[in-house]
Amino acid sequence: xxxxxxxxxxxPDIVLRAYSIGLFPMGEKADDDRLYWVEPEERGxxxxxxxxxxxxxxxxxxxxxxxxxxxxxxDAVIDGCASAGSTRETTWINAPIRRLYRDLxxxxxxxxxxxxxxxxLVGGLYGLSLGAAFFGESMFHIERDASKVALVxxxxxLRAGGYRLLDTQFVTxxxxxxxxxxxxxTAYRSMLQAAVEARGDFFAWPRHARAAGKDVLASFALQRDxxx
Length: 228
Hints:
Helix content: 25-40%
CATH superfamily: Leucyl/phenylalanyl-tRNA-protein transferase, C-terminal domain
Structural class: alpha+beta
């Protein structure tokens, strides 16, 4: 993994430019205000037509166990990603990350997916959209499968909107079980260029339209049947 020295100031415009060429910012820990540019030698990617949905996960999605929304509460989602459901002792989500991604959320580049049960936020994710590429930043869960359900809803929305790339930065054992693969840097750059030069529509499914779990799963089945 390549990492360059921290810079004194990074603006939202610089972040967007960095993503377009394969870099993303990270902090060391919550109480350290420095940011570093990161470019992994192998990049984690979810092939949008090969997301692995187990029978138990499909059952949870279909049953609409969680009330799923988008762009409803950025601050609560990033708080959750920085703490709840994490096995890390520290978080890389520091004050500059919160500020930058809040500004990018307000500008329409960052999106969230929330999962609630009984009105309580129990899981979700956030990431950045650029062209037809979506860069997943972080996810969390308090209740079992809540973050997985958020991911399934996200992937269905991206496919409906013509996205070409769902980036997950790194491949962890957990993400691999859901279909994430590692792509060498050179190949990733080619995928990235094609994706950011295309146009994706995050709101092909309207923001305030609650997608039913059965319809989310049907969109996966339809694409797989069409590809045969």
